[in-house]
Specification:
Elements lengths: L5 H10 L9 E5 L4 E6 L8 E5 L2 E5 L8 E7 L4 H17 L4 E7 L5 H11 L6 E3 L4 H6 L6 E5 L5 E6 L7 H12 L1
Parallel strand pairs: 5-6, 6-7
Antiparallel strand pairs: 1-2, 2-9, 3-4, 3-7, 5-8, 8-9
Length: about 180
């Protein structure tokens, strides 16, 4: 079930200015998987793969410095992930050129051999293709449920996360991301 982002938006806007603490810890669940970080540390410089113009290259979250990152951990075998992907694709199309980037990071062990046909079959046209087949980044963030989406501010500090699908192209989500861009 995809969730509205109202509670996350309010909490994220209130908590975004907090200074990072020494460790990433959640302050608690707001409702049904919404978690706002009380203390967070900058994103790690762990590499993952991007397919761009037919070539595969290593990238890291540090490559998106200065942008709000919607970091979505997903897999092709996960029904809520599959349902959520079109809204992430539309979000990237709507706000991708405005200092906001969607990094839909596939956790499929088959990498791009699985991701490429999935994108083609679903008609996903604006999302870049990212893969983390060994799950290093997911382990770093302690991901236990897919999809899980972590919002990262332009300063490289994670703000919070949502476990489960959400309506990422909703007006609420867009307002939240645009507000995070200003912090």
């Amino acid at each position: 079930m995809r969730k509205p982002l109202r509670m996350l938006a309010v909490a994220a806007l209130l908590l975004a200015p907090l200074a990072p603490g020494p460790a990433a810890a959640a302050s608690g669940s707001l409702a049904d998987g919404y978690v706002i970080y009380e203390h967070a540390r900058p994103v790690p410089d762990l590499p993952f793969k991007q397919r761009l113009d037919g070539m595969i290259r290593d990238v890291s979250l540090k490559d998106f410095a200065g942008k709000v990152v919607v970091l979505n951990f997903w897999a092709t075998w996960c029904p809520p992930c599959v349902a959520e992907m079109p809204s992430l694709d539309r979000l990237q199309g709507d706000l991708g050129g405005e200092g906001i980037v969607v990094v839909a990071l596939s956790e499929d062990r088959g990498g791009f051999a699985v991701v490429d046909p999935f994108y083609a079959g679903k008609g996903l046209s604006t999302l870049a293709r990212y893969s983390d087949p060994d799950g290093r980044l997911a382990r770093h963030f302690g991901i236990k449920v897919m999809p899980t989406t972590i919002l990262i501010g332009p300063d490289g500090i994670p703000v919070g996360e949502i476990e489960g699908g959400a309506e990422w192209d909703s007006p609420e989500a867009k307002r939240l991301l645009q507000a995070l861009k200003k912090h």
